[in-house]
Amino acid sequence: MKGIKGFTLILVLLMLVMMLVGCPGRVPATYTLTLDRNNNAWGGVSGGGTYLVDQSVRIEATPYQGYHFLNWTLEGTAISGDAVYEYTMPRENVTLVANFVVGEMVRVEGGTFQMGDEIGDIREESRPVHQVTLTYDFWIGKYAVTFDEYDAYCDAMGISKPYDNDWGRGTRPVINLNWFDAIAYCNWLSEQNGLSPAYDSEGTLLNRDGQITDDITQVEGYRLPTEAEWEYAASGGHQALPIPPRFLYAGSDHIDEVGWYRENSDAEGTGRKTQPVGQKRPNELGLYDMSGNVWEWCHDWYELYPTEAKINPIGPSNGRTRVVRGGMWNFGEEHCRVAGRARNDPVNRYLGLRLARTCP
Description:
The protein is α+β, with helices and mostly antiparallel strands. It has helices at residues 2-21, 147-157, 179-192, 227-234, 255-258, and strands at residues 30-37, 43-46, 49-52, 56-63, 67-74, 77-80, 84-88, 94-102, 105-108, 111-115, 130-134, 138-141, 296-301, 310-311, 322-325, 342-344, 356-358.
């Protein structure tokens, strides 16, 4: 009898253990799905939890204002570009990362073009026309950087936000930035995305190893477009070759179709001002507002144009003023021409910016 009682006790204990730890074939196994983000300030995620093996799980990534969803990754490998995704639970605990990016960027294929005022009717500093070759592809912002995007940086860094001239913030292009404000924003974005910063504290270009370089193809992080990149992209890039002919403005020969300038920027009847990005027609590459709305800082120190052909130019190594491009809400149409150029002291605060990156 004692032996039977002992066996019964052991059997009961085994059943209790099986109930606690699970019995293969009887109690379904569950695993944990953890959802993470590349930056908690750029978007939210939902759908994480404990699920059965092979269960279909609906997960969702929601970018905050001023940001965009890029993809879901598992251990660094992209698995889907859909923000709302049906994930099948494997037989293990997993962590999926939702990756968000700032703004939208357009890839521009390299090429050879004629840079400068080929018509000869705007400021002399936009001539002579000379051949420029870009041997690499690059990304450039679909829109100028907005207040929403720049304000997120200010919040993260605990710094003062630029004045909006009482016109409103949101998706209007950020204004009242100097050149150093612009490159500090570029470097912050690079750090947020695990990229090597493009600039040192003096504004000198750095390669992916953090060394000073004059080779733009070796720069990994976010940066300002070179003047040549800016004009090439504004002119439509490879989509507009051969050049000439090309549009006078970024996407049209008629400024009112593509840009905000002195004659049309009083859209609300309350005075001339910037307008929210993306309201006018884009150019051939799908880039908006490259003519008018806000002057945009370029990387280059200003210098007179050369007569000889150039390959991957980045401007001189030093100077007194930096190149600005595009014109703005209170300037005339001639300043908004794709060939038009201007300059400004890098410490002056009233301009905006558009992001660029060299394609690896």
